[in-house]
Write a structure and sequence with these properties.
Elements (H helix, E strand, L loop, with lengths): L3 E6 L3 H12 L6 E6 L21 H4 L4 H7 L2 E3 L4 E5 L4 E4 L4 E3 L2 E4 L3 E3 L12 E3 L3 H11 L4 E5 L3 H12 L3 E5 L12 H13 L3 E3 L4 E6 L5 E5 L4 E4 L1 E4 L3 E3 L2 H5 L10 E3 L10 E3 L4 E3 L7 H15 L13 E5 L2 E7 L9 E7 L4 E7 L6 E7 L5 H9 L16 H14 L5 E3 L4 E2 H9 L5 H8 L9 H14 L16 H11 L4 H8 L8 H13 L6 H4 L4 H4 L10 E3 L10 H13 L3 E4 L5 E6 L4 H10 L12 E6 L13 H12 L8 E6 L13 E6 L2 E6 L11 E7 L1 H18 L6 H7 L3 H9 L7 H13 L4 H6 L2 H4 L17 E4 L2 E4 L10 E4 L1
Parallel strand pairs: 1-2, 1-7, 2-3, 7-19, 9-16, 10-11, 10-16, 11-12, 18-20, 31-32, 32-33
Antiparallel strand pairs: 4-5, 5-6, 8-17, 13-14, 14-15, 21-22, 22-25, 23-24, 23-38, 24-25, 26-27, 28-30, 29-30, 33-34, 34-35, 36-37
Length: 846
């Protein structure tokens, strides 16, 4: 039988996917496949392009190889452009004069970056961000530049900004719209994203229309804006959107949409029956799909129809989850709330820098869309809720109030309720039923699941949900569930803690070399960093630990929404001398810091710029203050009432005991933050029963409460033991906390840990009080060892000239951040943009 000739113009991600799909159906050698690439290499992962600037090579980004195509019998031509389509002869012609005949032609030419018609846009050191060759040119410019501007604040623009930042270039983003990612985000989400990105040292300029690019005074170029402002830079990257690459189709008779794009039907056919178009060059029902997943769906539909099967492209969900400059961002469905009658619930937390918004139907029964900035843990659950029209809770606002643990719980419930036809992986169109079938066939881990179904091997956004489905099916079949920390460590967090503890491993690299693989990721690095700190309590800014820390730990302060930091010295038990109060007042006055007494009985000073932190802490350390560890997953505060010293109801010295407790456990690192409280009587003025460790004085000693917390998911602490003497109480606290550190999951609060602990509170009592596992003395010794290594991290830092080099705004300059704007409210300075904001956390909008 004569082979059917298939020609594919373009070998990008979508063109390559078409070839992969067709090869899977070509076992009998029915097809002869030929593809042309204008680039000097075969398909590579454009979604991960920014990884090129963080150590990945071009080979690391490749999706295939010449050897793989040779093995499959795919004929390929590199650096060769198709310049003509002769549909009447079923033939294409290239710029090298090559003629190739086809039975079916697939146009997968993708898109090209749009460069605004700005005078001076074609000068040296002006680039686009699309191909590996573009990245090589950007890298070369970066070596000759101190500053760079990205024109365009969408997805690709922020990726490009990350690339410049990774090169150590002083980076600016210029956006014409009033906010970043205007297509995906609303005003609140865009504003928070801007604040978070600026806090990382990237300056954002919105509502700026660039008129021309001229020679600069202090830099290579000067951008002249329509509002008469200017910005100097040494290099420019244009990332102002994409346009469908339809020039070839337009020239040779294929139907083109009014604003561009090759018109296709539901079978991905053009107006020429034997010519198909897929990916970003294709226009379906007036829409261009700028994500890779819809292109993959088009490829699958085109292959099916070429093979004589029935298949139709019915559009695609454009929801997406990604990390931009280290900031988690997700957009689902109608994220802007454009549906008539839609209602929205909004959650904004300026301290933790989280913004969430869900859009629901007019009757409140269906989820229409969502926005997530700063915390995307609930993305899989919300996405599946929308895609499968799953019913909402009576009060939909509860969907906003979930931390990592809570969303994990709700995610599990969501998995159980998902229909089998629910699409888990949009890149490869993998359903829940596909994953269940793979598990039944023998898949027991994510590596096997990826190989069999390809789920989560595309963009990776579905990996968490795919694992939840796999784990649920494994559990239903009676298998032990794989809870590996991540793909780099085939161990749980608890197992890694045991390995670190028993083998006395002191660094991440040592653990990775002996028990892991690859380079590590955003999951395992901070988790291992926390484990190391819990057991060895080493200085977190040592060179070998630096890469494991998040922004707060790196700068030993909580970053605020305007990019400044809070200064929180320890005030043990809430007791402070007048002299120390005076010092705090003097520091606040000298640096013009907003001052507030907190619920944890400390005094927080807000608004310190990065370069001011060492000077502030030098004054505080000299006055006898220590770091309060407000930035760490560690012991934060021990709250107390005045106790028997002053109160006529007090039965014991709660202040003195709280101070002793805080001084004992200060600096202890753990899977999540820890809060204590000591009340001098059962009137409970210190609110001890809402803390991780709560202590209440009685006539016969102390009552110990464990595993409570406030926050978005409050939990009342459980009474653990009664009428304890001080020595026994300390022993029990040592054992509870160290057992928690050993066995909790990453970022798991004590409350969730206890809820998930097999045997619950009774089992914990057996381990701690009865010493059922015969590890009581060992837990106490480990606690003593960790606490014995305590140091005030700020004292260590200000004594190190090398570490102090990190505390400046700009890599190549001593300049301060002049963009901060303030106004005075109630006698204190606060960020100007939040002065008039509402403080409602959850609000219902029509």
């Amino acid at each position: 039988m004569e082979k059917k000739r298939i020609v594919v113009i373009g070998n990008g991600m979508v063109g390559h996917r078409f070839i992969e799909e067709l090869c899977d159906k070509n076992a009998e050698g029915t097809f002869e496949i030929t593809t042309f690439s204008e680039e000097p290499r075969l398909a590579y992962d454009r979604v991960q392009l920014s990884g090129y600037f963080s150590g990945k090579s071009a080979d690391d980004l490749m999706l295939t190889s010449e050897e793989a195509y040779d093995e499959k019998g795919v004929l390929y031509f590199l650096n060769e452009k198709v310049t003509a389509i002769r549909a009447e002869n079923h033939c294409v012609v290239t710029d090298k004069g090559r003629e190739v005949f086809y039975d079916k032609l697939v146009v997968a030419t993708g898109s090209y970056p749009f460069v605004p018609p700005i005078e001076g846009n074609d000068q040296p050191h002006c680039h686009v961000y699309r191909t590996i060759e573009d990245l090589e040119a950007i890298e070369a410019s970066g070596k000759q530049s101190e500053s760079g501007v990205v024109i365009g604040g969408g997805l690709l623009g922020l990726e490009a900004a990350n690339a410049l930042k990774c090169m150590g270039v002083d980076t600016h983003v210029v956006e014409f719209a009033p906010r970043l990612m205007a297509v995906q985000l609303d005003e609140g989400g865009g504003e928070l994203l801007k604040e978070k990105i600026e806090s990382l040292g990237v300056k954002v300029h919105t509502e700026k229309a660039t008129k021309c690019i001229t020679a600069g005074s202090t830099s290579r170029y000067k951008l002249m804006f329509a509002d008469s402002s200017e910005l100097e830079t040494d290099m420019i990257v244009f990332s102002a959107g994409i346009r469908p690459q339809d020039e070839l189709a337009r020239e040779f008779g294929l139907e083109i949409g009014e604003r561009g794009g090759i018109v296709i039907n539901d079978q991905c056919q053009t107006n020429e029956e034997d010519v198909y178009a897929i990916g970003e060059c294709a226009l379906w029902q007036g829409k261009i799909f700028g994500l890779v997943a819809p292109g993959y769906q088009m490829a699958k539909v085109a292959v099916a129809n070429i093979c004589g099967e029935e298949a139709a492209f019915k559009g695609a969900d454009m929801s997406t989850k990604l990390k931009l400059l280290g900031v988690d961002v997700a957009s689902i469905g109608d994220a802007q709330g454009n549906t008539p009658g839609a209602q929205s619930y909004t959650y904004a937390d300026s301290v933790e820098q989280i913004y969430k918004r869900i859009i629901v139907s007019e009757d409140g029964t269906k989820l229409l869309g969502a926005l997530l900035v700063g915390d995307t843990e609930s993305y899989p659950t919300l996405l599946q809720t929308m895609l499968n029209d799953m019913p909402l809770p009576e009060y939909p606002s509860v969907l906003l109030l979930s931390d990592g643990a809570a969303s994990s719980d709700s995610g599990a419930a969501g998995v159980a309720n998902l229909p089998d036809e629910a699409q888990i992986c949009s890149c490869y169109d993998v359903t829940k039923a596909d994953i269940k079938a793979a598990v039944v066939a023998g898949c027991t881990n994510m590596a096997d699941l990826k190989e069999v179904t390809k789920a989560s091997s595309g963009c990776g956004g579905c990996s968490a949900l795919a694992k939840q489905v796999m784990d649920a099916e494994l559990a239903a079949l009676g298998h032990e569930v794989n809870n590996n920390l991540c793909e780099h460590f085939h161990y749980t967090r608890q197992e890694l803690a045991d390995i670190v503890r028993i083998k006395k491993i002191k660094t991440f690299d040592e653990l990775l070399d002996s028990h892991g693989e690859g380079l590590g990721c955003d999951i395992c690095k901070p988790a291992v960093g926390s484990i190391l700190a819990s057991f060895w309590n080493d200085y977190v800014l040592k060179e070998e630990h630096m890469g494991l820390q998040d922004t707060n730990d790196i700068y030993l302060g909580n970053m605020q929404k305007d990019g400044t930091y809070s200064v929180v010295p320890r005030v043990a038990g809430g007791e402070i001398t007048p002299d120390k109060l005076i010092v705090l007042g003097q520091v606040a006055k000298q640096f013009d810091l907003y001052t507030k007494v907190t619920g944890g009985q400390r005094i927080d000073l807000f608004g310190a710029q990065l370069h001011e932190l060492p000077e502030i802490w030098r004054i505080l350390v000299d006055a006898g203050f220590e770091t309060g560890h407000a930035y760490g997953k560690s012991v934060r505060t021990v709250k107390s009432c005045v106790g028997s010293t002053w109160c006529r109801y007090g039965v014991d010295d709660s202040v003195g005991f709280a101070i002793d407790i805080e001084n004992r456990y200060k600096g202890l690192r753990s899977p999540h933050k820890l809060k204590f409280a000591v009340s001098g009587c059962t009137r409970e003025c210190a609110e001890a029963q809402s803390k991780d460790i709560g202590i209440i004085a009685t006539e016969n000693g102390w009552n110990l409460y464990v595993c409570g917390n406030g926050g978005m998911r409050p939990r009342h602490a459980d009474l653990f033991a009664s009428d304890l003497d001080s020595e026994t109480l300390i022993k029990y606290i040592d054992r509870v906390l160290m057992f928690y550190i050993r066995t909790a999951d990453r970022l798991q609060r004590t409350s969730v840990w206890l809820e998930n602990l097999e045997g619950g509170l009774d089992y914990l009592r057996q381990v701690v009080i009865e010493d059922k596992l015969n590890i009581g003395e060992e837990l106490e010794a480990e606690m003593a060892s960790s606490l014995g290594n305590y140091q005030c991290e700020w004292k260590t830092t200000i004594e190190s000239p090398e570490k102090l080099k990190r505390f400046k705004h700009f890599i190549n300059s001593e300049a301060q951040d002049e963009s901060l704007k303030y106004q005075t409210v109630r006698g204190q300075r606060i960020p100007a943009e939040i002065a008039s904001q509402n403080i409602d956390i959850v609000m219902l909008e029509s």
